[in-house]
Write a structure and sequence with these properties.
Its main location: membrane. InterPro entries: Spore_GerAB (IPR004761). With 361 residues, the protein is an all-alpha fold. It has 14 helices and 2 strands; from the N terminus they run αααααααααααββααα. 69% of the residues lie in helices and 2% in strands. Strands 1-2 form a two-stranded antiparallel sheet. α1 packs across α6, α4 packs antiparallel against α12 and α6 runs parallel beside α10.
């Protein structure tokens, strides 16, 4: 970590970006072969967003977050309005991510043991935040979770190499550029652009103002992880993706043949692709509880942890009835994401430049 100037926040970027996006099946996209190019474009999009976010944060003080910046440079009322808007958007995001996690588990992978596994996931979020010190614990544990995720993905790729059909990756742009644009929008909304969550963590905002390199370096591993998912899913299944409409490709592949042995990779897929969901949902849970406390001007965020968790879970169960609904919603979510993750921060950045407020060098 010292050699590459990394901090726990660097691993948090990985956990948030990978998050639940690896659980979205490719067959819901227009043309799965274009997903690899869209993944690389999504990584470049993250660089653009980081430039916008860091440029924006340099106009604020060294202790505040995005909402504090709006409050100090514009008005308290405007800050409160966007506090409500972003609370609603993050509430929608955590409902979507919870649905992706437990709908995938309960309908495809762990049918017999899904209630226990889902309960464990939710209890773990509360444990991380309530008993282990909030965001500091999430930052520290993200180092472990992100490292395990990437290493296991490498193992999955190595195990799959002999079974991959390389002809499954061609042709590119078979249906034109439009499918690529839609796939890029899905990736940017559900993966690359989710780094907007960092704008609501003051400790991370402080680091983003001083050294952006420690946040850009993890993007290499984020793109690599998404490309591994692309390689394993499409390389193993190819056209058979359309017969597994609700399963992540790697999990649906099931059995790999290595020599004379047959090995099932679902346990590895669960470990690699669900572990980052713990990081992302924990961050969303922490931020949403913090925003709720700020909304009613209560300094004790712990008061809101349990009710916010219950509301998020109930909302997730009410809105999304099945796996197909939640996966299709990722496209709609990308539209909302464009507004909250990109257009609003860009609007405030341009406004600050026109106001000629000096930025922190």
């Amino acid at each position: 970590m010292n050699k590459f100037n990394l901090t726990p926040a660097s691993f948090l970027v990985y956990g948030i970006s990978v998050g639940t996006s690896t659980l979205i099946p490719f067959n819901f996209l227009d043309h799965a072969q274009d997903q690899g190019i869209a993944t690389i474009a999504g990584g470049l999009w993250s660089v653009v967003l980081f430039y916008i976010y860091t440029s924006l944060l340099r106009y604020g003080n060294s202790e505040g977050d995005f909402l504090d910046l709006i409050k100090n440079t514009f008005s308290k009322n405007l800050s409160y309005i966007f506090l409500i808007f972003y609370s609603l958007f993050i509430w929608l995001a955590i409902s979507k991510d919870l649905a992706i996690v437990w709908k995938t588990i309960s309908t495809v992978i762990l049918t017999k043991h899904s209630p226990t596994f889902v309960a464990f996931l939710f209890v773990l979020h509360i444990f991380l935040i309530c008993t282990q010190g909030g965001i500091k614990s999430i930052l520290q544990l993200s180092v472990f979770y992100a490292s395990v995720c990437f290493v296991i993905n490498i193992i999955i790729l190595i195990m799959s190499m002999n079974n991959i059909e390389y002809t499954n990756f061609l042709p590119f742009f078979y249906k034109g550029v439009h499918p690529f644009i839609r796939e890029f929008a899905t990736i940017s909304g559900n993966s690359s652009s989710e780094i907007f969550l960092l704008l609501f963590i003051p400790e991370v905002c402080k680091e983003m103002r001083t050294d952006i390199k420690r946040f850009l370096f993890p993007l290499i591993f984020i793109v690599a992880t998404n490309l591994i998912k692309y390689t394993v899913s499409l390389g193993l299944l190819g056209e058979y993706l359309k017969y597994v409409p609700t399963a992540p490709g790697g999990a649906a592949a099931g059995v790999l043949t290595i020599g004379t042995a047959q090995i099932r990779i679902e346990p590895l897929v669960i470990l690699a692709w669900f572990i980052t969901a713990i990081i992302k949902i924990s961050v969303e849970y922490y931020i949403l509880s913090n925003l709720a406390a700020r909304m009613v001007k209560n300094s004790n965020m712990n008061t809101f942890l349990f009710p916010i968790g219950i509301i998020a879970c109930c909302t997730s169960l009410i809105i999304f009835k099945n796996q197909i609904e939640v996966i299709n919603f990722t496209r709609t979510y990308a539209i909302y994401g464009t507004l909250f993750q990109f257009l609003i921060p860009l609007f405030f950045l341009i406004s600050l430049k026109f106001k000629r407020i000096p930025a922190i060098s």
